[in-house]
Specification:
It contains eleven helices and eight strands. The chain is an alpha/beta fold. The strands form two sheets. The chain has a six-stranded parallel beta sheet, with helices on both faces. The protein has a two-stranded antiparallel ribbon with strand order 4-5. Strand 6, helix 9 and strand 7 form a beta-alpha-beta unit.
């Protein structure tokens, strides 16, 4: 499958395509966002300082893969499309290998992610956007719902309970990200925007995938449109690729961090939290309920590991 020649995921500074991708994602997110409706009953009364109750100029931005959800959303989506006969067995094997590598390594490999995006674009070309949105709802229930990290979900709910908007920010297609955000009761999602004409996918992207610097541009564009003060906002991610986004906000958090992000976060005195093994990191400024989520997330990871070894 032909690679996208203009895609350079290792680039650290924003390019014209990064800005275009970010602005397109922000526009798509604002069109599809809705008020948060979920109520998980999380009690954050023990941590009144942050998030600040009623601060309308503050919001939270969450990376998706390995931050909110175990594994990569795009790979889970690929499994669902295979089940519905969108592509052949050899393509599923490629998705399965990429997902296995991603889960074991715990980091985003640019070549793997690019290959997955190329595959996804070719698969959805000619299909209607509404069709993929509907299928996305089904795939969420089948493969994604049980992979949400309880600890990260508690953090998002703390922002919602404080009256703040919460956005997913991901390289996954914005349609998938929007489904996940809605099912979690979040405000909306910033994601990669695939071009469509008259509601049908063309097989091309608008700009580039929402990855690295493009994520930061999307957050910047959305903040400007929403009247947010980024110094009062929070961002959460597991990947060093998201350092540009994390560096934009006044409250950056490293969640389930890869090695490079962990090192950077410690050097910058950013807050850390790891839900993969229930390890406790810096607690300052984290909602009390997140501690309970960490234990639950660690238990889920232990069960999954046990099942793999059997």
């Amino acid at each position: 499958m032909a690679a996208l020649g203009w895609l350079t995921p290792r680039r650290r500074s924003a390019t014209a395509r990064s800005v275009l991708a970010g602005e397109a994602s922000a526009e798509a997110a604002r069109k599809t966002s809705q008020d948060a409706v979920a109520d998980s009953g999380v009690d954050v009364s023990e941590e009144p300082e942050f998030p600040v109750l009623g601060d309308e100029q503050a919001a939270a931005f969450f990376d998706l893969d390995n931050t909110v959800m175990q594994g990569a959303a795009l790979f889970h989506f690929g499994r669902g499309l295979y089940k519905r006969k969108f592509f052949e067995t050899r393509d599923l094997a490629k998705f399965a290998w990429q997902q296995a590598w991603f889960r074991l390594a715990g980091v985003e490999d640019p070549e793997h992610m690019q290959d997955a995006r190329d595959s996804a674009l070719s698969i959805v070309k000619g299909h209607r956007v509404s069709e993929l949105m509907s299928i996305g709802e089904e795939i969420y229930d089948e493969y994604m719902a049980e992979r949400i990290w309880p600890g990260t979900r508690a953090l998002a709910q703390a922002h919602l309970d404080a009256g703040q908007k919460v956005w997913l920010v991901t390289a996954a297609p914005v349609e998938i990200a929007t489904v996940i955000a809605r099912r979690l009761g979040l405000t909306g999602a910033l994601g990669t925007v695939a071009e469509s004409v008259d509601g049908v996918y063309t097989g091309r992207l608008v700009g580039e995938p929402l990855h690295g610097p493009a994520k930061a541009e999307a957050v910047r564009a959305l903040a400007a449109a929403e009247g947010l003060d980024l110094s009062r906002c929070a961002a959460y991610s597991d990947s060093h690729n998201d350092i540009p986004m994390l560096s934009l906000v006044g409250h950056p958090y490293a969640i389930n961090p890869d090695t490079k992000l962990r090192k950077h976060a410690r050097a910058q005195d950013w807050r850390l939290r790891d839900y993969r093994t229930a390890r406790k990191a810096a607690k300052v400024g984290l909602p009390a309920a997140a501690g309970v989520g960490a234990v639950a997330g660690g238990t889920a990871a232990a069960i999954a590991l046990h099942r793999r070894r059997r």
